[in-house]
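**User:** I keep going back and forth on a fold encoding question. It is easy to fool oneself when nobody else works the same problem. Could you pick a protein and write out its sequence and tokenised fold? Could you put it straight underneath, so I can go through it closely?

**Assistant:**
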Amino acid sequence: MSKRLNPFDGKGIYTKFVWDVYRWLLRRKWFCHADVMADRLGLNSADELECSISKCPNNGELRKAFRDICALVREKAGKNSIETRGNNRCKEFRYVGTDDNPLEDLQNSTAIRDIRTYAQFCEDSAGFFPRVWLDYFFEDTLDLLQITRRRKDGEQMISSSIDRELTNLHLLPVLYEAIRDKRVLKLQYRPYEEESVSLTFHPHLLKEHNGRWFLFGHASNKKPEFGYNLALDRIEGEPELLPLSEKYVPAPKGFYNEFFRNIVGVSHLKDSKPFQITIRATNYGVFKLTETKKIHHSQNTIKEFGIYEDGEYGEFSLYVEANKEFIGRILQMGDGLVVISPPEVRNMFRESVLKLADLYRN
């Protein structure tokens, strides 16, 4: 089989090995098939392989990648540009050519293809992203003209049903760049039913939930120290970038992974803790919807939908805080979902449902 025209161009395991082998060659050190395989498997060295290279998964693709890349390098940099030593069972390779990147043209053509693909994706999915993102980052480009035309003519291929034209969406690019550049902001914020306050804010993360955008970060002299939450639509005026001399306070590494681990949405209840919660789906349609559109990443099916001694249902288990977003997700399914345990959470839902019933009683 002849080698591919551009082995760097692709998404499969063969292409991944192509990039791996080429990186090893450019190091100009001796290496073998096992070194590349160990690297791909995330091991420290070939000594950590649990079996011989011939028994490793995808070894055939690795050998094809070796063959094709070595042939191309020798074609571009000369037949003596790669040295070999050892026998076929433990053959080693080393690049010794004068060109530090003999296949740069092939790599660049792949990069250009990827950029064009991404630009095409942006055009086709303009209805999914908030318009302000595209208007800001594609300003004065032909791409924006094409995106605008497609939006006007209704030719977008990807769209969102959520109304994303909310107050202060124009701040998204500014806030994104402040996070990227680690810049401190001065802004006015009006909490719900409270007076406006001035904040010195160190932005860490933008997060969208249910069509609404939130900014998380560190607010000087405010609690909590990290994960302070601002709704974009309650920011007043334009945030001010403070001088670079204002020291930026970053979040601890991995903080937001942990912050969002056990919640639905964006809010923590004061002094709340996560519960192991069991919810029951009382009809098959709601069961399948909940199974395929999970409420939380911790969700597991503990009873398949079926007929049991106490009725027909299916059950799920989740480990989450019973915050307002979680309660809302359950209640939006009406009588299709019921919290079974623990009693503390079940009582929260009982109280919510009774209050709701009172509103309709008369």
